[in-house]
From TrEMBL:
Superkingdom to which the source organism belongs: Eukaryota
GO biological process, one term: mRNA cis splicing, via spliceosome
Family: Belongs to the CWC15 family.
GO cellular component, one term: U2-type spliceosomal complex
UniProt biased composition (Low complexity): 114-127, 139-156
Keyword Transport: no
Pfam families: Cwf_Cwc_15
Annotated Acidic residues bias: 67-91
Entry keywords, A to Z: mRNA processing, mRNA splicing
InterPro entries: Cwf_Cwc_15 (IPR006973)
Region of interest (Disordered), residue spans: 1-161
High-level lineage: Eukaryota, Fungi, Dikarya, Ascomycota, Saccharomycotina
Protein name: Pre-mRNA-splicing factor CWC15
Gene: KAFR0B05870
Length: 176
C-alpha cells in the first residue's frame, strides 16, 4: 500500500543540502512545545518562609514606629501636662497593639502546625498507593471453594472434562 496520498511535512527535504530556500510554512508538529517549567509552590521552601517571616516582622515594626512617630508629633503640639497623659495613653495603645500582634502570631503558628500535621497525615496515606493494574486486571480472589469428595491431596489430572476441578469451579462460578 502506498503513502502517496498523505501530505508531506517537509516537501523539499532533499533540497536542504544544496541551496535550501526556506518557506514560510511552519507545521504545528515541528514547533517547540512545553518550553517552560512549572515550579512547585510549597510552604516548606526555606527561602520563601524566611523572607515571608521577615516581611511580616518588618511590617509590624514599621507600624509600631509609625504609631510612635505620630504620638511624638502630637506631643510636640500639646502642653507638658497633656503630653505626659498622651504618652501614657499612647504607650497603653502600643501595648494593646503588641498583644494583638502576639495573639495573631500565635494563631498563625497554630494554624501552620495543624496544616503541617494534616499534610504529613495525607502524605503518609498517599504513600501507600496501589497500582492501576490491581484495579483493572481481573484477579482470582479467595472464593469459598467446595472440597471435592475425592480425598486426593494434590490436584490430579482427570481425563473426564465434566469431573475435572476446573470444570467444577467454572460451573460454581458462572452457572448457579
Amino acid at each position: 500500500m502506498t503513502t502517496s496520498h498523505r501530505p508531506q511535512l517537509e516537501a523539499r527535504s532533499g533540497a536542504k543540502s544544496a541551496g535550501y530556500t526556506p518557506t514560510s510554512i511552519e507545521h504545528a508538529r515541528l514547533l517547540p512545545g512545553h518550553t517552560t517549567l512549572k515550579y512547585r509552590t510549597s510552604e516548606k521552601r526555606n527561602d520563601g518562609n524566611k523572607q515571608h517571616h521577615v516581611d511580616v516582622g518588618t511590617n509590624e515594626n514599621m507600624r509600631a514606629e509609625e504609631i510612635t512617630d505620630l504620638s511624638a508629633e502630637e506631643g510636640e503640639y500639646n502642653d507638658a501636662e497633656s503630653s505626659d497623659q498622651d504618652s501614657d495613653d499612647d504607650q497603653e495603645a502600643l501595648r494593646r497593639e503588641l498583644d494583638q500582634i502576639r495573639k495573631r502570631k500565635s494563631k498563625q503558628s497554630k494554624v501552620k502546625a495543624t496544616a503541617e500535621v494534616s499534610e504529613t497525615l495525607t502524605s503518609s496515606v498517599t504513600s501507600q498507593r496501589t497500582g492501576w493494574r490491581s484495579k483493572v486486571l481481573p484477579t482470582k480472589k479467595n472464593v469459598n471453594k467446595k472440597v471435592s469428595n475425592n480425598n486426593t491431596k494434590g490436584k490430579s489430572y482427570i481425563n473426564d472434562l465434566s469431573r475435572s476441578d476446573y470444570h467444577k469451579d467454572f460451573l460454581n462460578k458462572f452457572v448457579k
